[in-house]
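Hi again,

Forgot to attach this to my earlier email, sorry! This is the prediction with iron/sulfur cluster bound. I've pasted everything inline since the attachment limit keeps bouncing my files.
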Amino acid sequence: MPAADAATTLLTVDGLSKQFSVAGTWPWQRRRLSAVNDISFSIAPGETLSLVGESGCGKSTAGRMLVGLTAPSSGRILFEGRDIATLSSRERRALHRHVQLIFQDPYGSLNPRMTVGELIAEPALVFGLADRHSVAARVSELLGLVGLADRHADRYPHEFSGGQRQRIGIARALAVEPRLIVCDEPVSALDVSVQAQIVNLLRSLQDRFGLSYLFISHGLSVVRHLSHRVAVMYLGNIVEIGPKGAIFARPAHPYTQALLAAAPVARPGARRSRAVLAGDMPSPLNPPSGCRFHPRCPFAVERCQREVPALTPGDDGRSVACHRWRELAAAPAEAPTLRHAPRTARLLALYRSAAAASGSRIGIN
Ligand code: SF4
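Structure tokens for the complex follow:
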């Protein structure tokens, strides 16, 4: 399994931030919305990094910056070591061929007046990867790669199901032979069985072509089967990043713990223990002081309200932005009666005791 390091990095994001200016209470007022706040990560060739967090945490804005749809306010994006801000327009156009985006709802990005064949042929022709003589064969090849048939080339997007449209979107992205695909919630609008098919398709394409993915998702359960590493975002910040195995086995940040405890239990008949975060994410227009998670965190102490926690590395490849994560990781083992789901149950017990001690900040199901 690949791991990102300086020698093998395809993409590096360094201190990336994005602020939007939005209308205030009065027409003449403008307010600053900090959507992404100083995030850094890297992706190796053939690697999947999942960016996970609730709606509004800034993960889609981060993805849009990587594909050039949104300009960063500050920070750097390096592709194969080259800062894309320093590239000429011709070089940047070539770069955008290598970094493609798959949308949650591909229907919105597919011209309804074009046939599927035309939609897939268009990017290959635009980037000179096929000509009018070879493009039909290329379209046929791409349809086959995503599990569609040649007969589908003459149909229109509205004639397809959600899963098939996502396959068309993937074929369109593959048409320009990308190195990295930003997958923005590509399966969240699909049925569970179709989700699995699309995730399996993405995995097989990765194995075949060595693709890298930035996989954006609001839940941890989907990313489990696709990720090599996971980055958890909260209110514009990365609060935990590390290898998938470490994150799922021992989530360290209280927010990661809550996300994981809230994920559906896959085993039929298994008890569905859930620790549900109370309240909504605070507005990025007026983020909390100190640790941005402190109003919802059952483990918050006075220091959390005044001091921003830095991402600090652990000894298993992860980094965590929490003042208390080492202390919480050393919490006592679970009671024997909770052995059916040790980690989740232990967390649930921690949440219960914390909720009892601190009032109604957190709800337990
Ligand atoms: Fe909770 Fe404090 Fe850690 Fe933030 S720094 S996650 S408030 S314990």
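DSSP finds twelve helices and 14 strands in the chain. The chain has two domains: 9-98+179-365, 110-177.

That should be everything now.

G.
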